[in-house]
Structure formats: C-alpha cells, structure tokens
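Tokens help. One example:
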Amino acid sequence: MKARKFLIILIIIVLLSMTLMGLDSINAVDNLAYVVSIGFDIKDNGKLELSFQIAIPSGGSESSSSSSSQSSDSIINSVECNSLESGINLVNSYLGKQLNLSHCKAIVFSEEIATKGIGEYVYTLMNNIEIRPTCNVIISRCDAKYFLDNSKPMLEQLSSKYYEVSSTAERSTGYTTDTTLQEFFSSMTDTFGECYAILGSVNNGNNSGGDAGISNGSDNSNIAPETPIDTQKNIETLGIAVFKDDKLVGELNGLESISLLILRNHLKNATLNIPSPFESTNFIDLYIEKSKCETYVDVINGTPYIQSKLEISTRIISMSDDYKNLDKSTIDIIEEYAKNYIESFIYDFVYKTSKELKSDIACFGKYAVSDFSTWQDWQDYNWLNNYQNAFFNIDATINLKSRYLIVDT
C-alpha cells in the first residue's frame, strides 16, 4: 500500500516537473530576439560596426529608440565593438533579450570592410553554432547598415522571406550567384579557386543604367544599383563581388555573371539581349534553355592553357517584326552571330579574371590538378598565383530555334 502511494506521488512529481519545464521553454522563446540579417561595417576609427536586423514578433510594437531604425516587420540595432561576440553581448544588454542567429538569412559586408579582408569574420561566423551555413553572403556597394535599413519587402510580408527570394536570381536570370556562407568559406580556404559573393546595393530609383564593362547597350550589362528601374528606394542584388584570398578585388556585371555560371555549369536559364546582326540599332532576345561546359587544362612549360567547350541550346523569344518569316538562312546567320557574341563575352570574362583581377573564381584549378603527380607538387606550383599567366580557348556550339509558333506555322 505504501509502495502504491509512493509510486503515485512520484508520477505526480514527474508530471509537474514536465509541465514546469514546458513553461520554461515557452518563456525561453519569449526571451529571444531573432536576427534576420547581420551587417558588417568599418568605422573611421577602425572599429567594427555591427548591425542586426531583428524580426518583430507578430503583434509586437516597434521601438522608438533613436539607436534603431525600422522596416515593415523588423527593427535594426547597431553597435560599435571589437568583435561579433562582444557586439552580441552589448546588444543583448540593451534589448533585455538574447539575440538568436539560427534564422539569419543574409550576412552583409560593406565594400570598405571587404577590401580590407573579411577572413576573420567568416571564420567566426562558421564557428558559431547558431549561424546556418546556408545563409547568403552579400557584398554591399554602400554601408551594410544602410543596405539593411532599406530592405523593405514590396511583394513579401517577411524580411526573412524577402532575402530568400532576392537571392534566387541565379535560377531565374543568371545576373548574380546564390553564394552561401559555407560555399564562400570553402572557396576561401581551398587551393583550386577563389571565392565570390552576391553583389548588392540600394537602388534609389530613376537610374539611367550602368556602364559596367559592356558598352553596347545590352540590358545584360548592368550592375547593382545602376539598373534603369523607376521604383521606390530598395535593395537590389545584381552582379558578383570577386575576391582574391579574403579581400575584395573587383566586381562583375550581369553578363559577366552569366559567363561564370556557364563555365561552372551552374546556369539554369537566362535571357541574353544581344545586338541584331541585321540592324545595329535593334536587339534580339535569346532564351538559354540549357548549357553545358567541358573544360580541359594543360600546364605547358609552367603556363596554364585552358580550353572550354560549350554547348548552348537557345531559342528566339523576341526580335524585329521584319523577320517574322524566318527561313533557315536567317536562322543560320543569327546562330553564327550568337556563337561569336557568346564566345566574345566569355573571352572578356576569363581574361578579366586572370589578367586584371588575378582571381580564379571559375575554379579552373580543379581541372589542372590532374597534371601533377603529387599533392606536394600541386601546392608548390601555387595555382592561385599562376592563374594570371593563363591562356584560353573558348569554343561554343549554339543550337538555336526561333519561337515555335513563328517557325512551325
């Protein structure tokens, strides 16, 4: 009888303990402040400025403190500090809550801090167990704090979802690349290629278009924030930030981004706006449905010789009304012109990265390593420094078809 009473009392104690533990968990969630993105800037005095974009809980009120600024569903707090961890502690003491980084979608570095080197910050982020390695790395052409402050979703209700949508341009346009923290860290530490990141900025609207590397008037030649879009002030991601080791050394526009994705076999699809071979003032839109690149690298007398063979399937989606009745000879002319055009801008890309930027972001090194007998031979050769001496051969095969309704009827 006593044993039964003891067992009942024990069960009641266990149930009460589990209930109290549940309440503690609920209270713990209420005491967390969820960070959507983190911005890294460098102050004039050389100190680090961290900006945390924090999600506002549903039904929560926005702070009116002068130390923060708001977007539709988030609040931004900035702190001057010596390191990420000390910055987190300082903000925790101000908020009265604990910053939680497990839902962070974007890490934003300003151009200024990126040119000085961001290796130590990337290592710190990778060592933080809360930061997901799948969050995106963005290099902002303006201050990171200003970038976050202007991330106001227009077609999304949540800032976190907005960052996910804005980084999918690789799959829909090819104008930038979806670079994650894990990918950036891996490229920064290996010997086969260099790292790169998404290029972003704040578009103030009413831009007349950029002049970033391509001067033929193509719509593919823009770079953030110079796209000719008349809109409200907001962030945009277009182009690629190129690194040598952990330092920013240059920027690529939309067409150069497409070149990188083709060479790395990462291009899903893209629309090329190319000059017409028939009228210099007109353009033709070619939709790339599929692309394949095979690369071969030979090291001849210490000099890399890189050959890339491209197979690109395209179709015409718009052109001048004068060419509605396209015959085979007209298609052949457009196909040959497209071949020369694509080879030309990819040549421009590879020579820009090797001679000007000296950064193998296309990761040609992974094809060169087979030329070396041992790993020590590969390390002694130092591919990342020898890439600047490379020569290239680009050979493209274009399979082109006009819009089906035009050709087949």
Summary: The chain has 14 helices and 14 strands. The longest strand covers residues 283-300. Confidence is low (pLDDT under 50) at residues 23-27, 60-71, 208-216, 404-409. The longest helix spans residues 2-30.
